[in-house]
Amino acid sequence: MTPEETRARLLYRDGLMLVLDKPAGIAVHRGPKGGVSLEDDFDALRFGLPRKPALAHRLDRETSGCLVLGRHHKALEKLGLLFKQGKIAKTYWAVVEGGPEAADGLTDLPLGRLDKSRGWWMKPDPAGSPAQTRWRVLGRGEWRGRPVAWLALVPLTGRTHQLRVHCAAQGWPILGDAVYGEAPRAGGPPLHLHARRIEIPIAKAKPPVVVEAPAPAHMREALAACGYAPSEGARSAPDQEADLSGAASGVVS
Q: DSSP for 75-134?
């Protein structure tokens, strides 16, 4: 992205941190094989500081939405501790295939590594690490001839690919998930998972900083099929999500 495009995606800024609206389809940092990453654009976000900001956590390549950056070393230490202690609450939006029968619930399903050759791929595993996700149905509909549901997902733990595995394991994979769902590797819809809202208690004497990322373009058609309206979403959806509060750390998408 150009510096102007990068700065246009800024959702929040103060002396300690930035919250960026991450686009889907780009890695937050370079992998072992290199390649383009979001970190390449962070120099445009210095805003007068001698060093560019750095990642306080990560989002999966195909996940869009709220991404927190620390503006200097002390800020990164503080944010890192908050994430580690599970004090930062995150709410994701997902459009899933089919959908749960109930209106809301808690998925309590331990996760483990699928196998060493699969890198970050995960699977339900009774002997794995504890993993919990609260969820609520925000709308239902039909998209391109198949039933779908719009969910709010709150990870209470921070396991790799937690939301994707939890949804798929219950029979309603996230739309566009080519790893845990049935979406094709090429030519299918993008992953419909969005880091919608984040609550950061950065200052002890002040309320948490609450930041929301607008629905990304690639999800709007399916969201609209479930009743989402851009003029209403920012007002109504958080009200429905309010009692789903929870926190998570690490890589969860």
A: HHHHHHHHHHTT-SEEEEEEEEES--SSSEEEEE--EEES-GGGTT-EEE-TTSB--EEE
Strands (E), 17-78: 17-22, 54-55, 64-70
Give the side-chain half-sphere CA count within 13 A for 19.
21
Determine if residue 200 is left, alpha or beta; phi over 0 gives left, psi from -120 to 50 gives alpha, anything else beta: beta
The residue written with tokens 């419909």 in the block is 192
Number of domains in the chain: 1
The answer to whether residue 238 is domain-embedded is: yes
Q: Which two tokens stand for residue 232?
A: 């209403």
From the candidates 21, 41, 60, 177, give the one annotated as an active-site residue.
Answer: 60
Told to judge if 14 belongs to the known catalytic residues of this protein, a careful annotator would answer no
Evaluate whether 54 touches 79 at the Cβ level (below 8 Å): no
Q: Is residue 147 part of a domain?
A: yes
**Domain of residue 184, residue span:** 3-244
pLDDT bucket at 36, cuts 50 / 70 / 90: confident
What pLDDT does residue 114 have? 79
- In the chain the first and final C-alpha atoms are separated, in Å, by 23
Beta bridge partners of 200: 209
Do 149 and 140 contact (CB within 8 A), yes or no?
yes
Residues 186, 194: contact at Cβ < 8 Å? no
Task: Judge whether residue 233 has pLDDT over 70.
Answer: no
